[in-house]
Design brief:
Rossmann fold, Urocanase fold, six-stranded antiparallel sheet, 11% strand
Length: 308
Amino acid sequence: SRSDPRYQPDAVTDQTSAHDPQNGYMPAGWSMEEWTERRRTNPKSVAQAAKASMAVQVKAMLDFWDRGIPVVDYGNNIRQMAQETGIANAFDYPGFVPAYVRPLFCRGIGPFRWAALSGDPEDIYRTDAKVKELIPDNPQLHQWLDMAQKRISFQGMPSRICWLGLGDRDRVGRAFNQMVASGELSAPVVIGRDHLDSGSVASPNRETEQMKDGSDAVSDWPLLNALLNTASGATWVSFHHGGGVGIGFSQHAGLVILADGSESADQKLARVLWNDPATGVMRHADAGYEEAIDCARTHGLNLPSIGK
C-alpha cells in the first residue's frame, strides 16, 4: 500500500533506453527470446508494445511526483514516448537539467574528459593530481577523483571524466600539454567532453528543456559551437542528430583536441577549451539567466546582448 515506507523513496528516476523503443526497451512480460524474435519479424509491434510499457512506468513515476517525491526524467525521452501513447501529463515532472543541472550550465560547467594514449594508467593518475593542484578549492571534485581511482576500473584506454567549466578547462588542458612536453606524461593525451554540455546542444526534452526565453528547440547554438570549435583548432569536430533522446529530438556538437606537448597544441587548447564552455555561458546569458550573465561579466565575455 501507499503507506508502506518502501513506496516512499527519497527520489525517483528512470535509467532506460526509451529513446529507442524498438531495440532499447523490452516490453513488460516478454521473454528475451520473444523480444529478439519479434524485433526481427515485426519490429513495429515491438515499438508499440515497448511504448505501452513505458506509459505504465511513467504513470508510476507521476504517482510518486503527485505525492511530493522528487522525480526527474533521466534524459532518454521516456516522457515523450509515454505522451505519444496517450499520457497527456507525462511532462508534469521535469528532466534532470532544469531540475538540477542548469545552474552549472550557466557557468559553462559540464562533463570534461580525457584519455591517455600511452595506455598507461599512471598517466591518468598524474593528470588526476594535476587537476587537484590547479583547482584546490573544490572538495567535491577532489572526492570524485579520489573515489574514481579506487572504485572505477578502466575499460580499454585509461581515461577520466569530471565536471569543469569556463576558466578551468583551458588551464587544465594546457597543463596536460605541458606535462607531455616535459615528459611527465609518457605520451599525448586526447581531451573531449560529453555531448551533454552547456552550449553544444539543442534538445528540448533534455539539455534545453524549459529554457527561460523559450528557445528550447533553437539549433543555432550547437551549429555555432561546432563552427567555433573548428575555427579555434579542435582536432576533431562532429555534429550529431538524436543524441540521448533519439532521432528527431536533438542536435549535438562534439569535439576532441590533442595535447601532444607542442606549442601549436598549447595555442589550440587555449582557444578551444575557452571558447567551447564559453558557448554555454553565451547561450544561457542570451536566454536571460542572471547566473550566466554574471559569469560572462566575470570572465570578460563581450556579449552585446547583455551590455557591460
